[in-house]
Specification:
4 strands; single chain; 1 helix; mainly beta; 72 residues
């Protein structure tokens, strides 16, 4: 499971939003090299919980990545 830990308020809203660089770094920690430019979100990620990102590995290979946003 890919996990991105960020600062968040009591209501579960994070300060700012998750970036593709943060998801790419979380993948790198797992040993998976993906360029941040190959990752995109369908909607901005601004809350804690489960989210999805679309990763384009090749023009014909697109993967839906599920990841968790957790509080520090």
């Amino acid at each position: 499971t890919i996990e991105v830990a960020v600062k968040a308020g009591d209501s579960g809203k994070i300060f700012g939003s998750i970036t593709t660089s943060q998801v790419a770094e979380a993948l790198h920690v797992q040993g998976i090299a993906v360029d941040r430019r190959d990752i995109r979100f369908t909607t901005p990620v601004k809350m804690l919980g489960a989210h999805e990102a679309i990763v384009t590995l090749h023009k014909d290979v697109v993967y839906t990545l599920k990841f968790m946003v957790t509080a520090l």
